[in-house]
Amino acid sequence: MTKFHLSLNVWDLVRSLVFYEAFLGVAPHKIRPGYANFDVEEPPLKLALNEHPKAASKGGLNHLGFFVSTPAEVRAVKERLQARGLATFDEAETTCCYARQDKVWVHDPDGYAWEIYAITDDLLDDHEHDHRGPALAEAPADTPADSTRRDCCQ
Fold it and tell me: Residue 2's beta-bridge partner residues?
C-alpha cells in the first residue's frame, strides 16, 4: 500500500481541520498542538497540517512524499534512487510528526523536498482520544512544538 503524502503549512489549525474534515469526509487521524494529519483511504492520501502563524509568508507547501507500508519499502526506494544517481538523506527510527518513522529524503532540482517514509510506531498510546472534539478545543494554539514533532514538520 502506498499513499501520496502532502504536508501543508496552515495559519489556523482549527479552521483548517474543520475544512479538511468536511472536504475529505473523514475525521483527522491525529491532532497535536500545532500539528494534525489525515489518513485517507480513497483517494490514498496522507495529509499533514503544520500550523505556522505566518504560513502565507512561508508558503503553503511544506514538503511532498509517499507513505509506504514497511521500512523495507523505504530501503528499496532508497536503493533505486541512489542507483539512478540521486543524493538521498536517511532518517532511520526518527521521531517526527508525533510518530516514529524510517524515511529517506531527496530534493528535486528546484529544491522541493520529497520523503518516502514508513511509520514504525504511530505514538497514539497516550493520546488515543484526541482525534476530534474536546481535545481539539483543549489544545492551545500557541503551545510550542514538543520533541516528537521535530523540525521535519516545519
Answer: 68
Neighbours of 98 (CB within 10 A): 23
CA dihedral 90, 96, 102, 103 (to 10 degrees): -50
Q: What is the pLDDT of residues 16-49, one digit of tens each?
A: 999 899 988 899 999 999 999 999 999 999 999 9
Residue 31: Cβ within 10 Å count: 23
- Single pTM value for the model: 0.69
Burial of 46 (0-12, 13-18, 19+ CB in 10 A): buried
Query: Range of 37's domain?
Result: 2-153
- Give the CATH number of the domain where residue 44 resides: 3.10.180.10
Residue in the block written with cell 536503493: 79
CB–CB of 42/71 below 8 Å?
Answer: no
Which cell is 78 given? 532508497
Counted domains in the chain:
1
DSSP 8-state class, residue 145: P
